[in-house]
């Protein structure tokens, strides 16, 4: 069972190491949400975190026939917006 402890002018809770590892929150910035049942602690989700790595992986994947068809198409080159049917 955990209890609040005094840390300077604030209060804190010691979280056991195994819970931190299980929740994968070590070395992460945390946010706190107040719920009717108590407090939810979760890692801050950075909107674009990891995008560079994911795009790099995608850039090195082999191109499929469907990808080549789209990349080599003349969409937009010989057509204008007035040619489109809505």
Automatic annotation (TrEMBL):
Pfam families: MazE_antitoxin
Record InterPro entries: SpoVT-AbrB_dom, SpoVT-AbrB_sf
Gene Ontology molecular function, alphabetical: DNA binding
Residues of the SpoVT-AbrB domain: 5-49
Region feature (Disordered): 66-86
Residue ranges with Polar residues bias: 76-86
UniProt protein name: SpoVT-AbrB domain-containing protein
């Amino acid at each position: 069972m955990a209890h609040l402890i005094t840390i300077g002018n604030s209060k804190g809770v010691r979280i056991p190491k195994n819970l931190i590892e299980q929740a994968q929150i070590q070395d992460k910035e945390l946010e706190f949400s107040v719920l009717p049942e108590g407090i939810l602690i979760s890692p801050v989700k950075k909107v674009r975190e990891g995008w560079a790595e994911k795009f790099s992986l995608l850039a090195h994947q082999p191109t499929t026939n469907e990808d080549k068809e789209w990349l080599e198409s003349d969409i937009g080159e010989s057509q204008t917006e007035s040619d489109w049917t809505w």
